[in-house]
Amino acid sequence: MLHVVRKCKTLAVVTMVLALAITLTAAGCSKSEESPSPDKNAVVSNVFKVEKIKVGQKIAGLEVASASVDSLEWSDEPGLAAQFKGEVILSGTYTHYENSPLLDHEIVFAVDEASAHKLPRLNIDKRDNLFVFTNHDRAEDELGPGGSSGRATIVIDNFNIYYVPNSDSLNYAELVQVMEKE
User: If DSSP codes are grouped into helix, strand and coil, which group holds residue 50?
Assistant: First the structure.
């Protein structure tokens, strides 16, 4: 009888060890790999709120290099001057104005819908998605003289939002390269 009791105790211990091993194995199998924690400074969308912008934050893959938010006497909406670092490829249309009262000799690039999500966009900004080039001479050499226009795929850097509510303020960027021009 003692022999049977020892076998029962041994069997009970073996059963508990096996049960524990199965439980631990099952817990280990169902445990998913930990995904990397998201960048706390990243904004998934390209649209952002003026009160949330911070230097070092990434919006639409571009890093906020500087940001200045100003309260304006004549508007309930704040003004914003923000610079974004990082190159981005955009497609759209360009127009090189000649003798325009507002745009003088500027080259304006209007971003198309296919590229619009690649640039940061202020949530209260209702202006068309366009900008002028900070390096006008290079843009003129690559895109054409005054009066020219067309479609192009370009690379820009140093995108700047200059938003003043109820005004004709323009955004601007540095032309890095013209990849394709029609």
Answer: helix
- pLDDT higher than 80, residue 85: yes
Residue whose C-alpha is closest to residue 169's, from 52, 97, 99, 79? 79
Write b or e for each residue in 123-150: b if 16 or more Cβ atoms lie within 10 A of its Cβ, otherwise e: eebeeebebbbbbeebbbebbbeeeeee
Nearest to 124 by CA among 50, 42, 74: 50
* Average pLDDT score over the chain: 80
pLDDT tens, residue by residue, 102-147: 788 899 999 999 999 999 999 999 999 999 999 999 999 999 999 9
Task: Specify the long-range contacts of residues 95-100, CB closer than 8 Å, at least 24 apart.
Answer: 95/149, 96/140, 96/143, 96/144, 96/145, 96/146, 96/147, 96/148, 96/149, 97/146, 98/146, 98/147
| Contact call for residues 58 and 44 (beta carbons, < 8 A) | no
Q: Residue 44: which pLDDT band, with cuts at 50, 70 and 90?
A: low
Specify the 3-state DSSP secondary structure of 6.
Answer: helix
Cα distances (Å, whole numbers) of residue 23 to 9, 26, 30: 21, 5, 11
Compute the distance between CA of residue 124 and CA of residue 132 in angstroms, rounded to an integer.
Answer: 20
How far apart (Å, rounded) are the C-alpha atoms in residues 1 and 96? 103
Confidence of residue 166 (pLDDT cuts 50, 70, 90): confident
